[in-house]
Amino acid sequence: MTGRIKEICSNLPVVGCLADVGCDHGYCTKYAFDHHLCERAYISDISAGSLEKAQKLLAKEIGAGKCIPCVGDGLQKIGACDCVLLAGLGGEEIIRILSERALPARFVLQPMRNSEKVRAFLLARGAKIERDYTFGDGGYYYDLITGTGSGGDTYSDYEILFGRENLKRLPEAFLKRLFEEREKIKARMGRQMSRKSREELVRRLSVLEVVTDAIEGNI
Question: Is 38 helix (H, G, I), strand (E, B) or coil?
Fold first, then answer.
């Protein structure tokens, strides 16, 4: 089990029924059963071949009727559940899947990109974000977002872009990613590129410098 999977699993809540959408090998659902975090679970993937890996890992739970495998897109084949896990998918794909029906009572999300779009979507739908932070594994950085489907929340523009918990607690992985991105953009500014690309880089660099300057001023 990778560090990324372990981090995701450490944020799974105790629920009656878990839905692991895009479950890949099924490690998170297996962890949930082994640590008594759920009584029942759905595991789903759009690919029957991909789902087969999880079915092998969870053969005992499937045989006992506690785990239901589903081949399908998003939540289409998933029944009522208490928590939806969406990990390793793009942010826009996560938004598309969660848009299919009312937000779940609880969610654990690990978008591979466009985390800011996921935050904005959740807030617009009235969700309450509980955890929202960056962690590292093997030289890569990931965002993890957990919360409830109701309760409401309000983020500032910078909190939507970077995550409230990151800005408040300044985890090491967040700081490394932030400063690395700033330096990479500065290095790219000397290269040939279209006017539109340069304008986008300038805008992003401006935002990064506001945040990193504020952090450096308080360290």
Answer: strand
> Whole-prediction pTM value?
0.94
CA dist., res. 85 & res. 106, Å (int): 9
The Cα–Cα gap between 163 and 143 comes to: 9
pLDDT tens-digit profile of 96-144?
Answer: 999 989 999 999 999 999 999 999 999 999 999 999 999 999 999 999 9
| Arithmetic mean of pLDDT, 49-57 | 93
Cα atoms found within 13 Å of the Cα of residue 105, Cβ hemisphere only: 11
CA distance 106 to 33: 17
Exposure class string for 189-216: b at 16+ Cβ within 10 A, else e? eeeeeeeeeeeebeeebeebeebbeeee
How far lies 121's CA from each of 17, 101, 117, in Å?
Answer: 24, 13, 6
Of all residues in the chain, the percent with pLDDT exceeding 70 is: 99
